[in-house]
């Protein structure tokens, strides 16, 4: 039996009737057509589905949409400046070759932004430790760490 879900997504109030078992990632992708966050593993291991829920990074494949009821969700689409340019962290990933196929990149960027809220000038070791919940199958993490360092500098 469907239930009403109401929340803020990327600064916009949305509501829908959903099945209680709907995952946040499925709601974002299927109902709202926000496909930046990816479904990589369905077990909260890879981090490709990372979004911010009430200001904190979460893996959207491991959260029921109803757990976000009345809350605020920020997706990779929501960090884009009004002029359509790249967010400084996205630009840093591009400029420092922190991506290859790009599948994990939205989750990496959202995790990096969460890290920078807590540690505006993280060490390389802090960055590596924070990325333990995000997997990349294409590239070494060296360029990702460098991209996050550069993004932190650009954002400070």
Task: Describe the protein in words.
Helix content is 33%, strand content 16%. A 5-stranded mixed β-sheet has the order 2-1-5-3-4, with helices on both faces. It is α+β, with helices and mostly antiparallel strands and 156 residues long. It starts with a strand and ends with a helix. The radius of gyration is 15 Å and the shape is globular. It has 5 helices and 5 strands. Helix 2 runs antiparallel to helix 5 (141-155). The chain has 2 domains: 3-79, Ubiquitin-like (UB roll) (Roll); 88-155, Orthogonal Bundle (DNA polymerase, domain 1).
Mean pLDDT: 95
Fold-level CATH name of the largest domain: Ubiquitin-like (UB roll)
Structural class comes to: alpha+beta
Q: How many domains comprise the coordinates?
A: 2
Into which percent range does the helicity of residues fall?
A: 25-40%
Q: Care to count the β-strands?
A: 5
Q: How much strand?
A: 15-25%
Task: Indicate the topology.
Layout (H helix, E strand, L loop, with lengths): L2 E7 L2 E7 L5 H8 L18 E4 L2 E4 L12 E3 L13 H8 L9 H14 L5 H7 L10 H15 L1
Parallel strand pairs: 1-5
Antiparallel strand pairs: 1-2, 3-4, 3-5
Helix pairs in contact: 2-5
């Amino acid at each position: 039996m469907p239930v009403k879900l109401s929340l803020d997504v990327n600064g916009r109030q949305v509501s829908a009737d959903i099945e209680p078992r709907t995952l946040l990632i499925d709601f974002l992708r299927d109902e709202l057509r926000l496909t930046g966050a990816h479904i990589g593993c369905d077990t909260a291991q890879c981090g490709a589905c990372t979004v911010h829920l009430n200001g904190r990074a979460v893996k959207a494949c491991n959260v029921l949409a109803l757990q976000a009821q009345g809350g605020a969700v920020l997706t990779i689409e929501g960090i884009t400046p009004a002029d359509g340019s790249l967010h400084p962290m996205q630009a840093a990933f591009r400029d420092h070759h922190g991506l290859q196929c790009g599948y994990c990149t939205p989750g990496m960027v959202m995790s990096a932004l969460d890290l920078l809220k807590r540690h505006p000038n993280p060490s390389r070791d802090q960055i590596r430790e924070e990325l333990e919940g995000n997997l990349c199958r294409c590239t070494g993490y060296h360029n990702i760490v460098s991209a996050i360092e550069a993004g932190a500098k650009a954002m400070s």
